[in-house]
Amino acid sequence: MSIYQASVTAPVNIATLKYWGKRDKSLNLPTNSSISVTLSQDDLRTLTTASASPSFKEDQLWLNGKLENLNTPRTQACLADLRQLRKQDEEKDDSLPKLSDYKLHIVSENNFPTAAGLASSAAGFAALIFAIAKLFNLQQTNSELSKIARKGSGSACRSLFGGFVAWEMGSQVDGSDSKAIEIAPLSHWPSMKAMILVVSDDKKDTSSTTGMQATVATSDLFQHRIENVVPKRFEEMKQAILDKDFAKFAELTMRDSNQFHATCLDTYPPIFYLNDTSKKIIKVVERINSDAGEVIAAYTFDAGPNAVIYYDEKDEEKVLGAMYKYFGSVDGWNHKKFQHGNNEDEIKGVSRVILTTIGEGPQSTEESLINESGLPKLATSTNN
Ligand code: DP6
């Protein structure tokens, strides 16, 4: 039996202007536009092989070696959209194999440990959509595909592009204009770097989906944010990126992270994502900037305590040198050497650092995760 297959990789993105709030839950339509930076796939990526065959009995997905449930409304919505696009092509060209009728076997792996607690759903859904689009030989643009990824997980639509990305909220009720677009490619500002501080946490955070619903329903500050703050900030941040104005970009990024977490606190009952370690990291970044006499580092936090710090390569010695004093004893410095701090400088609660850069959007790859029988090859990931 013939097995058709395609493999791709997709990146993680970290928002600098946060998506928080849905105006339509089933279509994943947001209450505000957002902006993100795509991170390098050398350090963080999802690799997905999608295959289709008349011999497959059911749709199946293996994620990091484990069989996952594909029967969620979100995943089903994505698969239905992709199959419909394929069907349209098959109806136009009779010679095409009827892939839209075949069941799918999908195998997906992350190159970073799930244990690090990094949100992987954005890269995961982006890779899923891009892999099936490639398998089906769909000719839609990445912006068009981003609308399908959006239905899987809102933030996933931004992982369809590299560099600097906007998710335009749109105004249509059917979501036809709620899509990701590229603000600027990686080549526009390749010296932008990112450092992730993985913060240990013992509690299970409220999921983004649940958290944002509660915020929309109960927070007054949230209303102020979407009406009066985000529209202006969206334009300012886009401009700061186009101007490569790091200080401006950094201030807007930090203000937006702070306001997002303020709306979480203003949710009733309140939601806390930052912990004491996160707050110490904020202080460290403030100190780095005040010692430098200019803003050279920006923190941002998503729905958990991990920090992402953006900085420009030219300031690497200053930023990483200072960070090393506090977090030099954990893994992830990749042989980078800076001066050690005193023992009393050390801040506990960070389990590792990931030093990375900004990166490209989804890529095709020859590396397949599926064997001749259409089943997963032995796990090769570093997942633990
Ligand atoms: C704080 O995209 O995970 O990271 O659409 O419900 O799947 P769903 O939510 P998700 O939310 C991400 C929230 C955030 C901010 C952001 O990435 O913009």
TrEMBL record:
A GO-annotated cellular component: cytosol
Keyword Protease: no
Enzyme class, UniProt record, top EC level: lyase
Database matches in InterPro entries: GHMP_kinase_C_sf, Mev_decarb, Mev_diP_decarb, MVD-like_N, Mvd1_C, Ribosomal_Su5_D2-typ_SF, Ribsml_uS5_D2-typ_fold_subgr
Listed pathway(s): Isoprenoid biosynthesis; isopentenyl diphosphate biosynthesis via mevalonate pathway; isopentenyl diphosphate from (R)-mevalonate: step 3/3
GO molecular function: ATP binding; diphosphomevalonate decarboxylase activity
Cross-referenced SUPFAM superfamilies: GHMP Kinase, C-terminal domain, Ribosomal protein S5 domain 2-like
Record-annotated Mvd1 C-terminal domain positions: 194-364
Catalytic activity, reaction form: (R)-5-diphosphomevalonate + ATP = isopentenyl diphosphate + ADP + phosphate + CO2
Biological-process GO terms, alphabetical: isopentenyl diphosphate biosynthetic process, mevalonate pathway; sterol biosynthetic process
EC number(s) given by UniProt: 4.1.1.33
Keywords: ATP-binding, Lipid biosynthesis, Lipid metabolism, Lyase, Nucleotide-binding, Steroid biosynthesis, Steroid metabolism, Sterol biosynthesis, Sterol metabolism
Residues covered by the Diphosphomevalonate decarboxylase-like N-terminal domain: 10-180
Region Disordered, annotated ranges: 364-384
Pfam families reported in the protein's UniProt record: MDD_C, MVD-like_N
NCBIfam families given in the database record: mevDPdecarb
The family this protein is said to belong to: Belongs to the diphosphomevalonate decarboxylase family.
Protein name as it appears in the record: Diphosphomevalonate decarboxylase
